[in-house]
Every structure is written in C-alpha cells, then in structure tokens.
Amino acid sequence: MPQDRADTCLLDIVIVVSTGAREHLRVCLKSIERHPLTIGPASIKVTDNASRDGTVEMVRDDFPRVRVEAFEADSGFPRANNVWLRRSGAPFALLLNPDTELTDGALDHMVELMRRRPDVGVAGCRLVLRDGSLDHAAKRSFPTPLSALAHFTGIGRRAGAGRRLAQYRAPELEEHGCDEVDSVNGAFMLVRHEAMREVGLLDEGYPTPGMEDLDWCFRFKRRGWKVWYEGAVTVVHVKGGMTVEQRGRVRHRGLRHNLSFHRSMGRFYRKWYAGKNPLMDLAVYLAIGAKFVVAAVRSAVARRSLI
Q1: pLDDT at position 7, please?
Q2: Of 36, 83, 169, 283, which sits with the fewest C-beta atoms within 10 Å of its C-beta?
C-alpha cells in the first residue's frame, strides 16, 4: 500500500464514497494495491459521505494505511473532495471514483505524462465499462445547446451522427488517441497542484451527482491550462456504481439523483452561458425541465416494473 506522508508524497489519491459503494471501494483499493504508483510515494485519502453501511470500518480494518474522513451528513461530491485537496501538499492529486479499477502501469504513465507536460493542468484517461466498451464521458467537449440536446435525446449518440450533433463526445479524437480536449471525467481526474492553486477547488455549489468536473475543466481552460485525454491508458469504470440504483440488469437514477443532476445542468448553463440571449436562456431552462420530467418518469416506470 502506498505511503501516506504528505510531506514526501508525489501523488495524493482522493476517493469519495456514499451509501452503497462499500464493495466498489474495496475492489478499487485492492486494484491500487495491485497496481500502485512505483515512481514515487503516494497516499490514499477517503471521504465517507455518511454511508453508514460499514464502509469506514471496512477501510480501517482492511486498509489501515488509508486515511478516512467520515462525515455525519452527505456533504456532496465537491466538498468531500475539497476536504483533502485543501490539505494536499503533493505535486499531483488524483480524484478517483470508488467504482473504478486501476490497470497495470496506469498511475505511473499518467504521472509521468504530467511531469513531461508542465502545460497540462488536468489529465484523464480512457475509461471502459465492464464489457470493455468506451465510457464516452471520458472525453468531452463543452456543450452547445444543439450538441447537448442531441446528446440527451440520443440523436448525438447514434453511429454516424454528424460532428455538430456528436460534438459533446469530442468525436474528433478517437478513444485510443492522446490530445487536448475540453473536459475529462471526474471518475479519474489527475490534477496538478500548481494549477489547482491558481484555478481554485471544485465548486461546492453543484449538487451531487453534478457537472462539477466539467465546470472545473472549464475553469482550467479559461486560465490557460490544458486538459489532456490519454487514450493509451485504460481504467475500468463501473458506470453509475455510486449514484444509480441497480436491480438485475436495469440501472436507473432515483428521483433525488435525477433532480440533482438536472439542477446541476442548469447551474452550469447559468454560470457560463446565460445572460446573452433571454429567449435562448428560457428555451434551455425549459429543455432541462422537460428532460428532468422524462428521466423521472422513466425511472419511476423502471422501478415499478421491478416490484
């Protein structure tokens, strides 16, 4: 298990867990044990967002060198990460979801990349689902109203969708490619401490699940830092392992998570795009509201069908 002396660490790994993620976290921590950072010392810090499911005890018993911060109430993903990021003195910090599994050499490759490229403030890698298919959220472009509408209606996710419709998925860069992108995914987000001091921490105003990772990348780009996608490195991401109810093969967000996600979409638009065209703003907010209603109804129907 990596060392946890903050004054000597090259990398701080920060993981946030909530209810239902205990076994995901166990698998994640074991993958770090199997595939540790070898080019320098690293520490692992976990924030438990009031899981009350034995996660804290499991970590302390089975992974005694992992540091744990236990919250009495769910503080949200941004604040739970920021608790450790504020204390970090390592040159690099990795935000890692508990529903991920590292692969051989992934940490070494990504940290070496950041060392070679001092202009990169944030880096992410190729994320794959259990079946080996690409998690398309691993690389993204900042959404336009058209690309967001196409993505969430499914038109932009279809094979052969035009570039403007598929723009949110950054189709110009293939999944094994390596290049600058607008945004990477918060499931695996490697951040340079120097850049983080300049840009600031995650925006704690975003509800969970939210778009705080997209927002953070937007802020890094505005400050002149590059956001890099490294398709040569693969990490497994059990998509939705933290926030999606799973029964059998059916996965769906609960009502609270649906509401938080759509509120987060509204916050991102309001923060960075709104105010130039009132009619466009109204159309976007109505579209977000309509999408929430559709998503909530679909989830409710899926839930009832499994009773």
Answers
A1: 53
A2: 283
> How far apart are the C-alpha atoms of 210 and 206, rounded to whole Å?
6
Locate 254 and state its tokens: 């609960």
Q: Is the Cβ–Cβ distance between 69 and 84 less than 8 Å?
A: yes
Contacts of 211 (CB under 8 A, 6+ apart): 264, 265, 267, 268
φ/ψ of 65, rounded to 5, equals -90, 0
Strands 100-101, 139-140: parallel, antiparallel or unpaired by DSSP?
unpaired
What's CA 41's distance to the chain center, in Å?
Answer: 24
Helix-helix angle 55-62:22-34, to 10 degrees: 20
Q: Nearest Cα to 293, choosing from 266, 250, 258? A: 258
> How many Cα atoms are found within 13 Å in the side-chain-facing hemisphere of 28?
31
Residue predicted with more confidence, 294 or 247: 294
Q: What is the pLDDT, as a whole number, of residue 26?
A: 97
Average pLDDT value for residue range 18-26? 93
Encoded tokens for 280: 């466009």
SS3 122: strand
Report how far residue 275's alpha carbon sits from residue 67's, in angstroms, rounded to the nearest whole number.
44
Out of 7-16, 177-186, 298-307, pick the least confident: 298-307
**144: Cβ contacts below 8 Å, ≥ 6 apart:** 164, 167
Q: How far apart are CA 299 and CA 199, in angstroms?
A: 37
Mean pLDDT of the chain: 88
Q: 229-274, pLDDT tens digit by residue?
A: 999 999 999 975 444 444 333 455 677 788 888 899 999 999 999 9
Q: Which amino acid is at 239?
A: K
Q: What is the pLDDT, as a whole number, of residue 248?
A: 38
Q: What pLDDT is stored for residue 261 in this prediction? A: 87
Give CA separation, 139 vs 91, 115, 223, in Å: 24, 21, 20
